[in-house]
Amino acid sequence: MATVISGKELSASMKAEMAEQVKAFPAKYGRVPHLVVVLVGDDPASVSYVTGKAKASAEVGIRNTTLRRSAEISEEELLALIDELNADDEVDGILVQLPLPRHIDEQKVIAAIRREKDVDGFHPLNVARLWLKEPCTLPCTPKGILRMLQRAGVEIAGKRAVVIGRSNIVGLPVAKLLLDANATVTIAHSRTQNLPSVTREADILVVAIGKPRFVTVDMVRPGAVVIDVGVNRDPQTGKLCGDVDYAAVEPIASVITPVPGGVGPMTIACLMENTIECFLKRQAK
Ligand code: L34
């Protein structure tokens, strides 16, 4: 029987604390932080995540503007919108929900956001700062994962961590944060040979590949800490499920995160933190 880390509960307590903090802002700074989320197209998963971000903003007392644009928007038009938001002094955070339609260069769009307003931590300068161990905005999902490990009292130093997935938004940055916490880190991916033999070495296994129930019980060392980043629709039932076969793995893990109610809500809570951080840094200038 594993300890289940509830991202739902942990994020709720983080949001309650932030709400207290934000309450003092109007008297202190004359306004509250303002987050602008840009959603291009109508992918149902993206709509759901962006709705979650608006709801969390309301809970924390952050002003949220969600701008919806057609999937046919040109790259030029999207870049012009970002320029406008960059120049708007009343905007503290800009988030362009990914993925973007294929005709738009994601990296170009991310790089166009002013680094000071990059609440995702995806801007090239923030990425560089992360890898150089300089102060930076940490990407929300990796930050949320480290918070969960901390909360569960998981010791990271000296442990073997295996990350499955090498994306810019989860796999690479979470591997870097685990490395900074003195884990011995392996990044596995679709081309890894004999993946089960690699993952069975893990004291801490982070799974971010986006394949429903990809990690089976034979891939997990008994007593391992298992962090499931996947949010998938079960092809049979249509319900949400993770990248880990939870029912089979939970009994042998020491700590595990559920889906839904695990990493997802933590991503959003950390986005609220990053928005407050960007706001406060701008106030200090
Ligand atoms: N720019 N794009 C940008 N920033 C991000 O931080 C994201 N991400 C990822 C996709 N694109 C992005 C998110 O917001 C993934 N992601 C995200 C956020 C929230 C949740 C999942 C992924 C979440 O709240 N998941 C709920 C279930 C939500 C549902 O019902 O659909 C959960 O309990 O896991």
Break the fold down into its secondary structure elements and pairings.
Blueprint: E1 3-4, H1 7-23, H2 25-29, E2 34-40, H3 44-60, E3 63-69, H4 75-87, E4 93-96, H5 106-112, H6 124-131, H7 140-151, E5 160-164, H8 171-180, E6 184-188, H9 195-199, E7 204-207, E8 225-228, E9 232-233, E10 240-241, H10 246-249, E11 255-256, H11 263-284
Parallel strand pairs: 1-11, 2-3, 2-4, 5-6, 5-7, 7-8, 8-11
Antiparallel strand pairs: 9-10
Helix pairs in contact: 1-11, 3-11, 7-8, 7-11
Q: What does this molecule look like?
A:
Helices cover 42% and strands 15% of the residues. The protein is built from 11 helices and 11 strands. The model has no long low-confidence stretch (mean pLDDT 98). It has 2 domains: 30-114, Rossmann fold (3-Layer(aba) Sandwich); 140-263, 3-Layer(aba) Sandwich (Rossmann fold), CATH 3.40.50. With 285 residues, it is of the alpha/beta class. Helix 3 links the parallel strand 2 and strand 3 (63-69). The protein starts with a strand and ends with a helix. The strands form 3 sheets. The protein has a 6-stranded parallel sheet with strand order 1-11-8-7-5-6. Helix 1 (7-23) runs parallel beside helix 11 (263-284). It binds ligand L34. Ligand L34 is lined by residues 48-49, 52, 95-98, 120, 140, 231, 240, 259-262, 264-265, 267-268.
